[in-house]
Structures are given as structure tokens and as C-alpha cells.
Amino acid sequence: MADGVVIIGLDGVIRFANPAAESLFGRSSAELEGTSFGFPAIAGETAEIQVVRAGGPPVAAELRVVDMDWEGDPARLLSLRDVTDRKRAEERAAQLDGERIARVEAEAASQAKSEFLAMMSHELRTPLNAVIGYAELLDLGIAGSLNVEQRHQISRILHSGRHLLGLVNEVLDLAKVEAGRLSLNMGLAHAGQTADGALALVQPVAESRGIQVSVQHVDDIAPTYDGDEDRVRQILVNLLNNAVKFTDPGGSVRIDCGLTTQPDPEARLMGGPWVYWRVVDTGIGIAPAQIASIFDPFVQVERGHTRQSEGSGLGLTISRRLARLMRGDLTVRSELGMGSVFTLWLPAVNGAARDAARRRGESPGPASRLQGLAETGEALLRELEPTLNSFVARLRAEPVMPAAQSLRFSQLADHIGTYVANLGGVLIAVEESRGQPTGLVADGSEIQRLVAERHGAQRARLGWTADALRREWRILGEEIERAIRRRAPDVDDAAVNESLTIIARFIDQGIELSIRALTRALR
Ligand code: ADP
In CATH, what is the architecture of 187-356? Predict the structure, then answer.
């Protein structure tokens, strides 16, 4: 029998034990017989008991008792079943259950935290845009001219405000990534073009620090990758900024970009081929002990008593997560005092896939679909510089504004940057305050109004007519629309159309206000 069987007399003394009982107790039947069973045995009842076994761990056993006769005397038959394995399985199941519940709770807590952070960042960012917008108005002298000290103080407000906005944007990005809310606009794009775009953005800072920056295209063919071009540029700009920040004047920073089927072993990648961008600097490098932690949030390498560099310690965290979201990776190799190499890897698109995409009418470039006014606003903010450039170029080419050719860029663009940036901010604020009038949207509108009035007065000084002014606003409207459509080629997108309607309303209001100001100034 698999079950142990023990027969005891009414006095509790063991009279018989079968082989299964012998192995359960770890004793022979001769040793067991004549000793007391030691546990009250009541007929008809089932109990779980611990059997202390000689020379082994205790065993959990299920005990059943029935009355019987044994050699003519009333006795009890005890059957003992080893339930140790079942007990263990039950305990393990309970433990797994507990772990699962703890995990679900931790995930919910982390999700709640990320949602809280995402919401807080919005709440922080929108008023910050108003702070910066008003500081820019003061800086433009719209409310009257400033003395040197006031100008200095306003520039400090602007500097700190923009820095804070940068931090808030990073926290918002990280929270979005963690909450799984970051939407990527995946598409085909040229690796070299993205590198050039990123380099152009950091070149002025690098040059002002005396650091040479360059892009080197390693392959003859232009590698194409699958990713969100804006996000790839964001990662590269972040790497380049770090490289410039941690390299002394006289040093150099380079991006090598190319195609490979054999990525560095430390990259967590499957399949291939891969497009890579290596950002190589001749800077201070990173000690081996620190290298693993720089991708953790809020980590900045301690450098003795020197002041910590400006920054949040979030840039690399976000960059690596973005890279992995796009099915790539971000890796680093560095040696203290010898410079660093950060490498971004993304899936390459081979010739056949590229041709197929071309046949389907897709072309390399960001294929995006904006989902809301806020995204449209953000797209506009990202397109600020190209928008200003093409706006000024078109003004110079217009026959209605002959003087435009001889005017400097700053005279033509002047406060238009503030106007367009604020427009982006207003779209974000409108989306975030949906359905409710808020002070933030009102602030945005007031900034638009003041800039438009100043614009009219300034154009009057340049000798423009009302017709020229009207034409200029139309050009600005067209360039803004072009910037948005560049990021959102999907014409039917309701959010894009809604954004364009709001922008058209602001432009109409701008025309009216600035023409009134122009007429007033000419009188
Ligand atoms: P931060 O905004 O502080 O630069 P990052 O996440 O981008 O945050 O970088 C984290 C830290 O990694 C930096 O503070 C710096 O100590 C180190 N680091 C990043 N890039 C470089 C580099 N090119 N050379 C040396 N150290 C670097």
C-alpha cells in the first residue's frame, strides 16, 4: 500500500506498522511496535499531523481513523498519507498569488505615479509658457523701453524660464514613456539627413565653446532607418549637447553614421541590419564604475568639488528608452580622460523594403499623424526655425514689399518667433483646458494681441502699406500651415483642421489689430 497503515490498541500503543508506515516514520516495524503512537486518534475524524521522522525532515501526513478488531481485541486502524508535496505546492501557489498581487499593485502604483507626473508636467508647462511669453513681451519693449538693469533682469527670467521649461519637458517625456503614453510617428528617414539636422542645432553652442563638430557618412549609400525622425533627432541632439558640454575648448565632436550587420555586443539587438550613429568626443570621459549608472534617471557623475553641470540627469534615460521603444538601443564606451563614444542603433530599412514603400507612395521622411491640438502645437514649436526662415525668404521675394530685400533678418523676423511660439503654446493650452475657459488661454491670446499691435506699429516705421501688411500675414499663415502639414501629411485629420481653424482666427485677429496699429502710427 502506498499509504502508511498503523494499528493501535485502545491504550494508544502500536501493534502493527506496514512498510509504508516504516518509511514514513523512518523506523522499522519492530522499533515502532510497542511504543505509544502519541497522537489522539478518534474514529471517523480526519486530521493533518506532523510526523517526526528519524534522521530526516518532518513529514506532513493526513490521518484517518477507523475502529476495528485486531487479534480479537477492539483496536483502531490509522491510515497516514504523505501530503508534503501537496502542501508545498499549495504554499508555492499562495506565494505566487501574493507575488502576483504585489506586482499588480506595484504596476498600478507606478502607473498612477507616471500619470500624476504627466499631469503635473502639463500643469507646470502651460503657465511657464505664459511666464516666458510675458518676459519676451517685456524684452521686446512693447510695454515701454527698459533700462540696462531691467533688461539684464528680464534676460535672467528668460534664461531660467527656458531652462525650467526644458526640465519640465524632459520629465513629461519620461513620464509619458513610463506610462506607455508616448506615441511615436514611425516612418522611413535618411540617417545622414537626421544627423545633419541634429548637428545644425548644436553647432552654434559648440562653436561658441571653441569645439569643432562634424558629420561623417561612413557608407556611400545613404542608409535609411525605420523610426520617428523627431525623436531620433532629439536623441542625437542630446548626445551632441552632452559631448560638447563635457569636452574642453579645442576638442572635437563627430557623428559617424553608417550601416552594419554586426552591432557592438553590448547592444541589446536582435536581427539586423542596423543603422548606427556614433557620437564621438575627445572630452573628459567616464570612469568604469560610473558607466552603468548614467542611464538611470537623475544621475550625474560626481566630479569632485566642481559645480555640477546644468541638466537634469534625465537626457540619457529618456534617450535609451526612446531608442528601445523604436526597437533599437543606445550604448556607450568611454575611458576616463580619453573621451566617450555613444552609439544609437535603429533598424535599417533595406533597398527592397524601401522600393516597396516608394511604390506604395510612401517616401522617406516623418510619416506622422497628429492626434490632438497639443501635438499640433508641439509640432509647430519644433518647426519654429524653418518656419521663420522660409517666412523671411518669402518676404524678401515679394514685389509688394520692395524694402524687404534690404532689411536684416532680425528686422523681418523680429517678434514673429514669439508670435509663432506662443501660437503653439495656445494650441497646447486649448487642448489641455478643453471645454473650460482658462486664464492660460486668455494669457496666450493677450500675448498674441500685444505682439500683433506692436507688429503694425513696427511695420509702419518701415514704411509698409496696409496691403503689404495684409500680404505678410497671409504669408505667415501659409508658412505656419505648411509647417504643420509637413508634420501631418494626413489632410483629413480632424485635429489638424481644428488647429488650422484656430490659427486662422488668430491670424484674422492679427491682421485687424496690426492694421489698426499701423493706421494709428501713420496718422
Ligand atoms: P544631464 O542632463 O545631466 O547631462 P544625461 O542623462 O544626459 O543628463 O547625462 C548623465 C550624466 O552622464 C552626465 O551628467 C555626465 O556626468 C555623464 N555624461 C553624459 N555624456 C557624457 C560625455 N559625452 N562625456 C562625459 N560624461 C558624460
Answer: 2-Layer Sandwich (3.30)
